[in-house]
Amino acid sequence: MILIGGWFLAQNLGVLLPDIWNLWPGFIVLGGVSSLTKYFSQGRVNGAHLFNATLAILLGVFFFMFTLGVWQWEMMTQFWPLLLIIVGAAFFVQWLVEIRVTRRLILALVVGGIGVFFLPSTLGWLAPELASQIQRLWPIALIVAGIVVLFGGVLKQNQSL
After folding, report:
1. Using CB atoms within 10 A of its CB, is residue 34 exposed (0-12), middle (13-18) or buried (19+)?
2. Do 150 and 134 meet the contact criterion of CB atoms below 8 Å apart?
3. pLDDT(158) > 80
4. What is the per-residue burial (b if ≥16 Cβ within 10 Å, else e) of 69-93?
5. Nearest 10 degrees: CA dihedral of 128, 124, 56, 101?
6. How many CB atoms lie within 10 A of CB 104?
7. Average pLDDT of 7-12?
8. What are the domain boundaries of the chain?
9. With contact defined as beta carbons under 8 Å apart, do 122 and 80 qualify?
10. How far is residue 75's CA from residue 27's CA, in Å, rounded to a whole number?
11. Are 115 and 92 in contact (CB under 8 A)?
12. What are the pLDDT digits (tens) for 21-42?
């Protein structure tokens, strides 16, 4: 209430601020900061808090780019691979603190890799012919990821025998 009241007071006094309705991604960022606080206050034992913090903070920043007018909402068709990169980054950060859980690294590489794979195409950095080929053949990335996960599970099972 203090922050909202201060916001409206500043606007009434003529301070140029963005429209309060454009600040909704701040709630996502605050959720991330809350998860980050839990992670550190609970002895750095729950990597899920770090995953949630990374995901929420990066998603909040991503959506702020749209709500504050840096990017236009129509540009979401260009920037959607960043959402996959953000999820991959969150898995990677979680893996850094739970380094023995290799599936987190695999998820980070697969999800983030798909985002990295598509981003140059959606931003128009590739020749149209190459972009067309990527759009047609992208399922190969899923097949390769599935093979990596399958063989990773088989190798792990053989090591435990």
Report:
1. middle
2. no
3. no
4. eebeeeeeeebebbebbbbbbbbbb
5. 50
6. 21
7. 86
8. 2-160
9. yes
10. 23
11. no
12. 888 999 999 999 999 999 999 9
Give the chain's length.
161
Taking residues 82-105, what's their average pLDDT?
Answer: 93
Q: How far is CA 118 from CA 24, 78, 91, 160, in A?
A: 28, 9, 19, 37
Q: Is 16 left (phi over 0), alpha (psi -120 to 50) or beta?
A: beta
Helix (H) or strand (E) run with residue 110 in it: helix 102-122
Structure pTM? 0.79
Q: Residue type for 54, please?
A: T
Q: Distance (Å, rounded) from C-alpha 111 to C-alpha 105?
A: 10
AA identity, residue 96: L
* Residues 6+ away with beta carbon under 8 Å from 64: 25, 26, 29, 70
